[in-house]
Fold DNA repair protein RadA.
Amino acid sequence: MPASTKAKRPVYACSECGWTTGKWVGRCGECQAWGTVDVQAAAASTGRTAAAPVTRRARPITEIEVTEAASVPSGIGELDRVLGGGVVPGGVLLLAGEPGVGKSTLLLELAAQWARQGRRTLYVSGEESAAQVRLRAERTDAVHPELYLAAETDLGALLTHVEEVGPSLLVVDSVQTIGSADVDGVPGGVTQVREVATAVIQRAKSAGIATLLVGHVTKDGSVAGPRTLEHLVDVVLQFEGDRASRLRLLRAVKNRFGPVDEIGCFDLADAGLLEVPDPTGLFVSRHETPVPGTCVTVTMEGRRPLLAEVQALTVETAIPSPRRTSSGLDSARVAMILAVLTKHCGVNLSKHDVYAASVGGARLVEPSVDLAVLVAAASAATGRVAPADMVVLGEVGLAGEVRAVRHLGDRLREAARLGFTQAVVPEGTDASTVAVPGLTVTRVGDVRAAMRSLAAAPTPLRSLD
């Protein structure tokens, strides 16, 4: 039988990640999801593509105007910080986050701020009716005549709205709810998401429309749909937050127009999302008098230094295997630090349950908080109180050494700005780095020296007894 008359073999693809295989399987070989592999039509090969007219003549790079790609402030300072200055006309941004974290609220506020500057905005919702979006806009004071609303789930209708309204900013909430009648599959599937994203991006690039897409996430926190979606867009933002906390963090996972090491902080209140330009107070508790088991450190979120407080509590126990519980800290690293404290500082915790936590729901995963955890645990075990005006920085090694941390100068300047007068930092740090006015810096090489320096501080450790 000629090869041209042979039936094409079916291709099976995963609806979650786009992984393909030649035969059906119950579990995806890439994302390990069950029941997501289904048959799809094999793509026909044309063999050769003929030359076609170009849309715009190629020019030397020196003749290209950069003003067309200049960022425009969005009106939300924390968002502009993450984006690297603002929204770029023709740029496509993908905002992902868990359900209920506040993605729609953030983009509705962005759309309103954009409209208040006299620029037309189109907000297309595939999850809510226009009346529901209007009700939420009234609650958050995001109503403006230049903000247009549409409730659509069809790609063709969405593109028609864009043609009729002519916006400079387009918000699509969400890309998984929009479908195309010309493509097989249900909205949210791999083929549909790829088709919708490609069509919207092409329209945004050709008309210079800044476009923001809301993306769903899977149970492990990654963006749902094909990985191609993240490659197509210019910026991928992750909106994070704990349901038990009002604090929301905006991070850049990918950014073609700016840095990816900045974060934006927001407070999810009844009136919407409020910017938090100085979130340090959220992670440091206020005590009338110093208490044992507490220590303040400075962590880096992107390029922003934030003061955070580590707390520890030790309780005697009769069980052979004492508990080691942590919240907001890496449990394995806490156990390692407690072992170093026992071995090199002589603080025996073998008959004590130890609880360690960060204040305000902060997630402290940097090694620079190691020394603060050690000091807090030692303070809790001995009942002695560390100075309230001291910050402690340093990574702790298994041999008891204290290692250097990055961006030490920025951390110390932030501590001095907030009124701290003492700091314990790793030894070997350049003198010019720690020369901060109003801050007395003590450099230590190991944990024993760190404990000795605390005892000899201007405000010494003192017993509550």
